[in-house]
Amino acid sequence: MTAFPYRKGVLHAEGVPLSAIADAVGTPTYVYSARALTERFREVTDAFEGHPHLLCYSVKANSNLAILRLFAGLGVGSGFDIVSGGELARVKQAGGDPSKTVFAGVGKTPDEMAQALDAGILLFNVESAEELEALDAVGRRLGKRAPFALRVNPDVDARTHRYISTGLKTSKFGVPFEEALALYARAKKLKGVKALGLDCHIGSQLTRTAPMRAAISKVAELYVALKARGHALEYLDVGGGLGITYSDETPPSPQEYARTVLAATESTGATLLLEPGRALVGNAGVLLTRVLYRKPTASRTFVVVDAGMNDLLRPALYEAHHALQPLVKRRGRAVEVDVVGPVCESTDVLARARPLVLPRQDDLYAFMSAGAYGMSMASTYNSRPRPAEVLVDGEAWRVVRERERVEDLWRGERA
Ligand SMILES: *Cc1c(COP(=O)(O)O)cnc(C)c1O
Fold first, then answer.
1. What is the span of the domain harbouring residue 295?
2. In the UniProt entry, which residues are flagged as the active site (predicted)?
């Protein structure tokens, strides 16, 4: 059931009318549903019940401390997937457990590696031969063996938007499949690292099981081959990428996803690491915005709202679709409009050619499915302070990040 239902024509987050939040906090504002976050997490982890696994929430999808704290509290199987020292600091600050956290990314610095190793990270997902040597140096310097998994690139087309596809040969991510055996053999000679797993991640917003099955089966075979060569691996990290419904996509359910992953990895006996981001938070959040102006022109009708591409980058960055819903339903004939933000860029179009009952000034709307890669991608471009964030829980709600203030915009600058 959606966490954002209409009741008597008024859009709610759980038991709270969204217009009450907009009135109290202003717009633009991100609003998240604690119930939706919790239910989704449980749904995914329950789908893997009976099979050893850790659900490592991918922090970059939404890194608000309140969300990290909520996930950290959901039991022994809840870990994190991070891509920077900053995300590690967030996980620690939110009470997350570094020993259930995996560290990915093609450009980890030695400093970040040392911080993570000190914190007792579960494993590093290593993405190149030179990174492996750098990790070894850090491990030796700290007198530890840094646990790692090699991220291999299975060269499978994830059939998603090219900007969020990461598993092709031409991608900057992972090491070529063919080089993996040699790299694990090399690692055996190094005193500062210890092979603990194998990793892949083929892309985001995946809506079909076939590419997942193809990629994960390939990686599972490699896992078995590595074990046979005496590498004491324990973890098979299958990455994230499970898609969600933004408009009419029909991604696999968590249960279908689990069936696909479990079938592909059956032969390994490994503890599975899952790194969902979008699938846990995407449909648990919305972005509230207010209509500033209507602007009819000869070719189209623009509706100018107070949220822009700096607040929600996905439409401008990868032509993403976010449904738009009025906070108070109105009757009338729909016209086709372009909903645009105030930012001085032609790509600042949040919704293109949408049928909408022509709004009035000050009408409030919600961009739906904005919980993932929304606030975490927000910037202050055009010197626009970033939005507030609110977490709803039943009838209660609280601000979990204050709206940025103008003074924050030049913090650290010298005039
Ligand atoms: C971004 C990312 C994820 C999460 O991707 P989603 O599509 O949000 O599930 C998981 N693993 C890695 C390595 C990532 O970079």
1. 6-32+282-410
2. 344 (proton donor)
User: Among 163, 199, 201, which residue has the most ligand 1 atoms within 8 Å of its CB, making it the best to mutate?
Assistant: 201
- Residue 203 near ligand 1, beta carbon < 6 Å: no
Binding region for pyridoxal 5'-phosphate: 241, 275-278, 373
Round to whole Å and give the CA distance between 98 and 100. 5
Binding site membership of 239 for ligand 1 (Cβ less than 6 Å): yes
Among 37, 58, 127, name the best residue to mutate to test ligand 1's pocket (greatest count of ligand atoms within 8 A of Cβ).
Answer: 58
With a 6 Å cutoff on the Cβ, whether 282 touches ligand 1 is: no
Query: CB count, 10 Å around CB of 95?
Result: 11
Does residue 174 line the site of ligand 1, with CB under 6 A?
A: no
Residues known to be catalytic: 344
Q: Is residue 1 part of a domain?
A: no
- Does the beta carbon of 192 sit less than 6 angstroms from any atom of ligand 1? no
Q: Could you tell me if 328 and 221 lie in one domain?
A: no
Report helix angle 209-228 to 180-188, nearest 10.
40
Q: State pLDDT tens for residues 17-69.
A: 999 999 999 999 999 999 999 999 999 999 999 999 999 999 999 999 999 99
Residue type, 33: S
Residue 16 lies in a domain: yes
Distance (Å) from CA 118 to ligand 1 centroid: 24
- From ligand 1's centre to the CA of 239, what distance in Å? 6
Render pLDDT for 79-114 as a digit per residue (tens, 0 to 9): 999 999 999 999 999 999 999 999 999 999 999 999
Residues 240 and 379 occupy one common structural domain: no
CATH of the domain at 267: 3.20.20.10
Q: Beta strands 193-199 and 146-153: pairing type?
A: parallel
User: Would you say residue 415 lies in a domain?
Assistant: no
- 270 & 389 share domain: no
The pTM of the full predicted model, rounded to 2 decimals, is 0.96
267-285 pLDDT tens trace: 999 999 999 999 999 999 9
Find out whether the peptide bond into 211 is cis, omega within 30 degrees of 0. no
**Predicted confidence (pLDDT) at residue 167 exceeds the cutoff of 70:** no
